[in-house]
Amino acid sequence: MPAPSDFLQFVDQNADAFIQRLAEAVAIPSISCEVPRRPDVVKMAHWLDGQLKALGVETQLRDLGTHVMDGVELGIPPAVLGRIGNDPKKKTVLLYGHFDVQPASKSDGWNTDPFTLTIHPTNGQLIGRGSSDDKGPVLGWLNVLQYHHQNKKELPVNLRMCFEGMEETGSEGLDDLVVKEGAKGGWFDGVDCVCISDNYWLNTRTPALTYGLRGIAYYKVNVSGPTRDLHSGVFGRMVHEPMTDLIQIMSKLVDTTGQILVPGVDDMVSVASEEEKSLYEQLDYSIADVEESVGAPITLSDDKTTVLMGRMRSPSLSLHGIEGAFYGSGGKTVIPANVTGKFSIRLVPPQTPENVNPLVVSYIESEFAKLKTKNKLSVEAMHGGRPWIADHKHWNFEAAKRATEAVYGRSPDLTREGGSIPVTLTFAETLGVNVLLLPMGRGDDGAHSTNEKLDRSNFIEGTKLLGTYLYELAQ
Ligand SMILES: NCC(=O)N[C@@H](Cc1c[nH]cn1)C(=O)O
Ligand SMILES: [Zn+2]
Ligand SMILES: [Zn+2]
Predict the structure, then answer these.
(1) What ipTM was assigned to the predicted interfaces of this complex?
(2) For 263, phi and psi rounded to 5 degrees?
């Protein structure tokens, strides 16, 4: 069933108001991984709840309990559940998105205040933290609902919604909620398929449908020794230095070609067949696209297929930072007393946090023992999520393909995403239904990075895509 033409006109006519609503959402700094920002994540849950109610959606805020972060016990922001329509003749679609964001501050190198949505004066890009990941896509659904509410139009499907405020911090508490609400009589009972809009096209031109995500296993390695920071002139070459030990360990995790050095981790993954390789060869992507997105000619290979497989079907290990290290300007001559290295591994089938964690922990412990240092080591597996792959020939994907062709006039790329959305597999397994990732933003949006943006056309055409997809599902 094609989307009504007045829906498409409505979206164009209301574009400025939609952008204004996105500005309101971006202005709430809902950073889930920073203790002092937790009230803002809760504020964002209430803001979203109010928006949904105003658009005729029945909602509930669900308490997800507490968790400990940085040694502080914190309330987990409530999940926002929504429900509209209960017609047994219609399909029931579950929409998922997240309203928390990654940290951002002007001092990281943003050109504008990250929490003030700024419209680029020449290209109209909507710049602000969360514009693409994931407030823009979540608000895309609000835009679709507004058309139906304001014009008293019936939706073509029944909708169930699940929006969370902890996706960027391991989706604490959400799996249990999905299991509970997936049971008979629960909020998600009767769901026929799931749609998640929380990722990006591969490039800046071709819309995509995504059928795979990597999982994640996140680690902390702590090395401690002296009871306080020391003067390097007084104690240098007298004592074992925690930072020296930690750098040794971190340098043994991954090599400069991307090979994971933890024995057994890379070996778990099968070698791609020629047939599988051809899937990546067909994708509309080039080395120039990567270079444009990262802003420098630094790809690990000059071969597009190798680079794409690195992101889509291989695990990767990234070093993220060292807590406790001196990082200010100037030349402080300190020996830090207690340092914590952070790294994560993106996982692909058959890897899971459960089968990778023991390999990582025992490798680090054995490498540390070789250092013969008198400092102390502790290794902690933080949050994790399993990888996910879906059947992209399912009617859910077929509907999204038709919607993409209707809105963009071209067939979408079929991609696997390098990032992780831990709850995806939980939805697939618990509800026993197909999950589709229907991205709104482009490959150069800079999610998690500085100057994150969403192109105006991606927000507006992306809204049309989400609405059209619901009509195509109703076929
Ligand atoms: N848009 C999805 C996304 O960015 N997911 C995060 C999830 C995550 C895991 N640990 C911290 N964040 C990602 O980094 O892939
Ligand atoms: Zn996201
Ligand atoms: Zn993210």
Answers:
(1) 0.95
(2) -55, 135
